[in-house]
Structure formats: C-alpha cells, structure tokens
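Session log. Operator J.P. requested a structure for one protein chain; no other inputs attached. Running the standard single-chain path with token output.
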Amino acid sequence: MNKGFLTAVAVVLICMQTVSFSATDNSSEIASKESENVTLSAEITQLNTEIEGTRLEIAQLQQDIDDSDILINSLNTEIDNNKELLKDRLLSMYLSGTASNLEIILGATDFEDLLNKVEYVSIIAENDSKLIGDLTQQVDISNKARDVLNGNDMRDNVIAMMKDSCEMVAS
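Structure written below.
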C-alpha cells in the first residue's frame, strides 16, 4: 500500500512540475505578446502622427493652389479692364485722325498753346506707355502663375496618392 501511495504522490509531483513548466512557458509567451502589443501600439501612434502631418501638408498645398487661382482670376480681370482701356484709346486715336504728335505741336497758335500741347502729348504718351507696360506685366505674371499651377499637376498626383495611402493605412 505504501508503494501505491508513493507512486501516486510521485505521479502528482510530476504532474505539478509539468503544470509549473507549462505555466512558466505561458507567462513568458504572454509577456512577449504584451511587449509586441506595446511596440505595435507605438508604431500605430507614430503612423497616425505622420498621417495627420501629411493631411496638414495637403490642406496647406490646397490652400496655396486656391490662393493662386484667386490671384490668377484677379489678374485676368485687371488684364481685361486694361485691354478695354487700350482698345478705347486706340479707337479714339483712330477716330481723331492720323495726326502725329509733331502735327499737334506745330498746330499751336501761340507759345502758351505750344507748351500746353507739348505737355498734353507727353502726358498721353506716358499714359499709353504705362498702360501697355502694366498690361504686359500683368499678362506675364498671370502666365507665370498659371505655369506654376500647371507644374503642380505632378504635385496634385502625389497628393492624391498620399491621400489614398493615408486612407488605406487608416482603414
């Protein structure tokens, strides 16, 4: 009977030792999984921060594009107005005849009239030159701004791809 009892005790001790080893293996596996979980959580937080930064960049780029569009539209309005002024000036020159500046000046009746006509011709020439210069400058600025925006087509494609990537990572 002692032999049976000792055998039972030995079997129980062996089982307990096996359970103890099994519990130790499970606790190290749990600790490993918890460490992996913490690492993955940190990576997710970092990716979310990067995604938010990218979204802010996208919003800023979109704002820049919108501002450029407004600038181009404003310049185009000014260009149209200046073209109208130039057309009106050319029309009035055509309707008044083909008198040259010299003919106008030589048509003076006295010295005071001569000085006035020289001043008027000078003012008209300055205004015409300024109008043409302004118009040329506005067209150049508008074209450059349009070129910059057209150059942003590639950037727009990159932004679209970044948005898609952000949405896929966030999902």
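Operator note: The chain is about 95% helix and 0% strand.
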